Amino acid sequence: MSKGKNRVMIMGAAFAALAAALAVEANAEEAFDLNALVEAAKKEKPINVYDSTGKIVEMAEAFTAKYGVKATGVKVSANSQLEMIIREAQAGNVQGDVALITDAPAALAQLMPQGFVESYLPGDMKEKIPAAFQNPLAISTNANVWAYNTEAYDKCPVSNIWELTEAKWKGKIALVDPLTKSTYTDWFNQLEKHADNAVKEAYKVHFGKDLETAEKSAAAAWIKALAQNGPLVTDGDDPVAEAVGAAGQKEPFFGLLSSAKFRDNEGKGYKLGLCTELTPWVGWTYTKLGLIASKSASPNAAKLFIHYVLTEEGIAPQMKDGKLPTNVDIKMPQDEPSGIMEVADRLFPYDAATGLDDFDRREEWQDFWRMNYSK
């Protein structure tokens, strides 16, 4: 099995646990007729597709050109998607027909049980999407990775995450504000629930002694120390990419950012480099779901778009940003700029078994970060 397929299967096994616990149901035809779906979609109103990446505009335009079914891509953050979908459903005024959403815990807790959205799996994709990613349908797994400035450093200047708690890096780390992006607090909870021993062992590797802490976990101790070391917190990945990768810096930031931002090396002349050896992980992953508004006036067009993003042609713009498709038949492009596939086995995988706990403890982790953060 290829590294890419193996990686998808590993992450899928973890994701399956949450879906099973919630008994999520997905609609999937036993017989699938793409031509019939296209013809049915052409008779419906245009659709809007929500996604947190601007690439959705390009994807929707390509979809329209291919099928003659009008789709408009709308860049909307995961948090805003949740609010809009709930509000539109309650008002009976659906504007977003398809939601490609990275906040899987919230979608499973707030959208699906209330019937605001539904999961749809095209019949011809059942053998291509691992069962773990089918209910609900996940279209890709995404990654946040630790990065450095290759102009300022010959190699990654950090070899262990505990180094980031030391005076050397005080005020020189950049990341998205955990108070504004829930995937970060989910990550905190995942560390505590599934990787506390690894965090503890990393401490011993770096400092040569066992961790002694008054905190309830090694993960909490690391998160507290990181917050107290005055990191630059931003409202998105773009400022992190600039702080880390902008050319001409003598002392650039070290940062945590989306693998998608490595495209800025070409687009903006940045010098972003992926840390390929970092104890215990070089980054972490999360999942993007593909959901359809239950009250969409154009259900066939919405289904057609879901089918489209499960194909190589459809998901290609996001693959260039290091997004790994769940369709195991699709290979990552050779020119993907981050090199994420080379470190896929060194990413901390999201374990959906505690997805609802991640959701329930978001405020707790936000308070913990807020209480300990200092500039």
Automatic annotation (TrEMBL):
Question: Quick check: keyword Signal in the entry?
Answer: yes
Q: Which domain of life is it from?
A: Bacteria
Signal peptide location: 1-28
Entries under Pfam families matching the protein: SBP_bac_11
Q: Name the UniProt key words of this record, in alphabetical order.
A: Plasmid, Signal
Cell membrane among the record's keywords? no
Q: What is this protein called?
A: ABC transporter substrate-binding protein
Gene source species: Ensifer adhaerens (Sinorhizobium morelense)
